Amino acid sequence: MEFHNQALDKQNILLETLGFEGLVALDYEGHILALNNQAKSLLPFDKIAHKKLHEALTFYSKEGQHPIHPNELSFNKTLETGAVQRDIIYGITTEDNTLIWLSFSSKLIPDRPDIHMLISIQDVSPLVNENKKLLDSKQELQLLITSLDDIVFEVTKEGVFKNYWTSEPDLLFYEPEEFLNKNIVDLFPSEMTEKTLPLINKALTYNKVYHMEFPSPFDTHKGRWFKLKIKPIHSTKDRVAVVVSDISQKIKSLEKIRYNQHKFNQAFHFSGLGISLTDTQGYCLDANNMLSKILGFSQEELSCTNFFDYIHPDDINNDYLQRQRLLKGEMDSFTLEKRYRHQLGHYVWCSVTTSVVHNQSNEVSFFIVQLQDISECKKNLEILERQKKEIEIVKIDLETKVRQLEEFNHIVAHNLREPVSNIHMLIDELKDENRKEVNKEYFRLLKSSNNSLTDTLQELSEILEISQNRNIEKVNCHFPTIFKKVYDQFLAEIYSKKVILTTDFEIEYLQYPRIYLESIIYNLLSNALKYTVPRVQPKIHIRTYQQNNSTLLSIQDNGIGIDLPKFKSQIFMFRKVFHRGFDSKGLGLFITRYQIESLGGKIDVISKPNNGTTFLVNFLENN
């Protein structure tokens, strides 16, 4: 089909077709017959020649910019139905893949056999793009308005309401028709308008923003507070934007803050506790009068004080560790007992509770430190503790004395009664006996009983001297030195029995009567050397160590041992012997126990037959 422009050259046809725009002539099937130059500048001529216009290009809708099916295009509908279509906007892509927007109008030409339909085209891209920007701005404005809890009024300099915007119409004092185009003077009380109108004029005169807060003047909003923000509208010279914000919650919050602040100030300044606000480095931000009283510093001195400089050195580390846990959020507060150096130089015991205050970013702003002076309480507790220990010592001493008296009673009843009775009996026999040989035997028996009585009395005298000599002088005894002295006394026996003797003096020094310590080690080592197992190499281990603030001495052997279930209650009794065939009077352990107990100590034994014995001496030095 040949292109021709004959139909387009006639003026009457141009006038009949909507104006001097791009024109396209189509046949009965929609093929393009001809285009004028303006149409050629708008459409890609090389792509559409000899084609049906509705099939030659992809057309896009203005709403959503999605492709439109050819059957739905306006000029295709004109071909099918003959209906005139006016100003229908479609988008097409250019060579650089951008969209241009064209307005299409179409009508049939029934009087021309060579031209069936004429289409006019106009480039409306600037208009569409501008409308799109306006729509986007309108949408953004609408989103902004719906996101605000405020009311925005457009008000003239005379105070007349011209427009409003709000997302919550319930906030309006009046229905829109009741206040639009009306003056603020006619709507609000004079005490409010007398302040508002001058602010409107000042905002316009000085091109500044002004604010005003006021309680609601109406019963419908009774108890609510509002804030006016009056701002010039720069596109005009006689109008302002009046933004009304409901600040009731803010006012309530401020009142609550003021109330809480007042309560805190009252509690802070008039508390019976010393209170300080300190930063994370320990510097005092504020302190009350009670803290000044507790520590002896003036308010001025406290204001430039770092409390870490005044905490007792022994208490700093624990306090620092607990504060770090507070900073990490591991706990809300902690309480410690610690000492602060008073302004006069002495230390004050305080019970200290520390908590944190966070800012809006949940960062620690400062510490609240509360101090209670417990120095007097500490003194009383120390006195009570000391008295308790003294009572405990007295109790132990009395129990020991009672047991010793019972033992002495037993000794008198058994160890003295027999020789005294023998002496009386022999004296009676001597009165009636004249035979020389018999008298000689009686005198021998009498001497033996007298010697036994004398020995017992001597032993009892020594024991009584030990129990009564509590003020014996204590010196700084060196365990290795004293052991060496005792060791030398048993040197021959140790070599003859080939004894393996080891020592471990973890504690080398002890404040104790030297003569007693020598005697204790002597008697216990003597026992370990004496009661050995035949044909078994003796092993003895001597050790000193610390336990529960007391010094302990242990002497362990691998000897014949003791049947404790049978003899435990008699181990340290007077003249008690548990092994026959050994040269023993049963006095060593008895005297050793008295020496230890006379100074508040204790002795115990661990043993099994044929499995050795361990003697444990607890000197209770620190008690």
Summed up, what is this model?
Residues 334-386 form the PAC domain. The protein has 623 residues and is of the alpha+beta class. The chain has 20 helices and 23 strands.
Tell me the distance between the termini.
Answer: 128 Å
**Extended strand count:** 23
- Uncertain ranges: 1-19
User: How large is the count of helical segments?
Assistant: 20
What fraction strand? Answer: 15-25%
The class by helix and strand makeup works out as alpha+beta
Protein model, in words:
This protein is α+β, with helices and mostly antiparallel strands and 623 residues long. The chain contains 20 helices and 23 strands. Strands 2-1-6-5-4-3 form a six-stranded antiparallel sheet. A five-stranded antiparallel sheet has the order 8-7-11-10-9, with helices on both faces. Strands 13-12-16-15-14 form a five-stranded antiparallel sheet, sandwiched between helices. Helix 16 crosses helix 18 and helix 18 packs antiparallel against helix 20. The termini are far apart.
Give the topology, please.
Layout: H1 11-16, E1 22-26, E2 32-35, H2 37-42, H3 45-48, H4 53-56, E3 60-61, H5 74-81, E4 85-93, E5 99-108, E6 117-123, H6 125-147, E7 151-156, E8 161-166, H7 176-179, H8 184-187, H9 190-206, E9 210-215, E10 225-232, E11 239-246, H10 248-270, E12 274-278, E13 284-287, H11 289-295, H12 299-303, H13 313-327, E14 333-341, E15 347-358, E16 364-373, H14 375-432, H15 436-468, E17 475-478, H16 479-489, H17 491-496, E18 500-505, E19 509-512, H18 514-530, E20 539-547, E21 550-557, H19 564-567, H20 588-597, E22 602-607, E23 613-618
Parallel strand pairs: 18-20
Antiparallel strand pairs: 1-2, 1-6, 3-4, 4-5, 5-6, 7-8, 7-11, 9-10, 10-11, 12-13, 12-16, 14-15, 15-16, 17-19, 20-21, 21-23, 22-23
Catalytic activity: ATP + protein L-histidine = ADP + protein N-phospho-L-histidine
Domain PAC: 334-386
Enzyme class: transferase
